[in-house]
Structures are given as structure tokens and as C-alpha cells.
Amino acid sequence: MSEYRTLVRDFEELGLDAVISLGRNNNLNARRPWHEHIHEKTLEILYMYKGFQIVGVNNKQYVLRGNDVYVVYPDEVHSSGIHPISKNHFYWLLIRIPDNLEHSFGLPGENREMVNRLLKLNRIFKSTNELKNLFDKIITAKTSPEMPLRKTIVRQTMIQALLKLIDDSRNSSTSNYSGDIRKVINFIEANSEKNLQLDKLAQVVGLSPSRLRQKFRKQAGITLSEYIMRKKIDHAIELISQDKLSLTEIAFRLSFSSSQYFATVFKRYVNCTPSEFSKNLELKFTD
Known about the structure:
The protein is 45% helix and 19% strand. The chain has helices at residues 111-119, 129-142, 150-171, 179-190, 198-205, 209-220, 224-242, 247-253, 259-270, 274-286, and strands at 3-8, 19-27, 42-50, 52-57, 60-65, 68-72, 78-79, 89-96, 124-126. The chain is built from ten helices and nine strands. The relative contact order is 0.12. The radius of gyration is 21 Å and the shape is elongated.
């Protein structure tokens, strides 16, 4: 199975007329890109709990990592471009911007203000795992018809989640790397062809291996080993595009134990094998 997906709808019955749907995706392998699409009069909020994804809107690309929130405003064309859906775990929330703002979230006298605040969210900002917990609580209650006070729990938790988004957008900074983690990232990017070991990276910044692993995951929203592998695959794509080395040479240059293992990892992240990727490039340049 390549993903675990949950989608909940029908929030109108709970007095949340503006909420269209809340979804949760846990992608275990890469999938095909999101093609260009649009949500009319609808705000889309994507919360990247874990992993990595490149998305684009208005001819600008954004790189999402763990705990990033990405906002697509109503009527904007957006997609992931040529980039496949990565191995990641994310949530998305669709909110309709109604013509009558007074009937949106069941907040007498404050519906209009809630809508206006949501429309002023930053394009991209940092949140915390608390947002994941709120979304999970909503999904659990929405899919448990026998749960006592289910409707009240969904209504109150959704409002909590929206208020948290507003607060995080106002207070958050996207530059969340400390000096030592930034130094590790720079070292990985400069040495992506090497067999990078946790002990060696810990020595670079004077941290214990366990402390580095924990600190990197907290700040980058992705494990250190996962980040290293993604950088290797990014570099592999560059090398394949240059068409100067064979795929076997690229595999060993990037310190993979075998060309077969390289192909397996490459497909996990790019949704095709290195040879298929190379052929697609050839077709692109001959069309």
C-alpha cells in the first residue's frame, strides 16, 4: 500500500457551514504530481506534519517540511509542478468563503471576523504538533457516530484548530534552524556523494549522535537519515540530467551499495526508476 488516506465531510450538520472537508494523507512512497487545479471561493490550508514536499502557486515554488503550513487563497491555480508527491504525512483543510459571512462557523457576531482573519494567513508559516493532534481529534470524532457529545467535540476542536492557525501565522518564523543544525545541513549538501554517518555529522557540530538526531528531527520535521537520502536523490537527478555517467556509475558515486538498491530508493522518492527517468528526459528533449 502506498498511502493511508482519511477524508471527512458534512460539517454543515455541526453548524460549521464554511468547512468543506478535512483530510489526512500518510504517503509511504512517492506518487504522481498534483496537476494544476483551482478551488473556487475556497481557502485551502495544507499542514505538513512530517516529510517534505515541493508545491507551487502563481509561478512560485515553496518547499514544505515538517510543521510547515501552506495556504492557497481562493481561486488560485496551484499544483506540485513536475515534482512528485513525496513520502510524507500531511493534512489539508478546505474552507468555503460564503457569500453570507454571518453563517460560517457558528460564531454569533464573530463569523465575519473569523473569515477575514483566515484570509489574512501568511502563505507559509510554522505550526506545531498540537495542530496535528487537533486535526486527529476532529477526524476521530467525526468518524465515531457513537461517541458522546461528538458534534460538540468536532465544533469546538475545529474552532481551536482555526484559532491556532491564526495565532501561529501571526507569531511564527519560517527560519527555524539553529546554527548547529544549519551547519549540518550545509555539510550534507556539500558532501552528498559521501557515505555520511551519524557519528561523523555529530562530530561536525560537537553534539552527541542521539542529541543531533533528536534536534534535527524537531527543527527540520524529517529524520536526519531521510534528509541525507533526499539530498542524494536530488543529486542523482542532476547527474542523470547531465547524461555524462551511466546509472551504475551514478549509484556508486553517491555511495549506494549497488545499482539495484539505488534504483529501489530512487523509485521510492521519484515514483519511477532511474532508467525510466532518463528515458523520460530523452523524450522531453526529442519532442
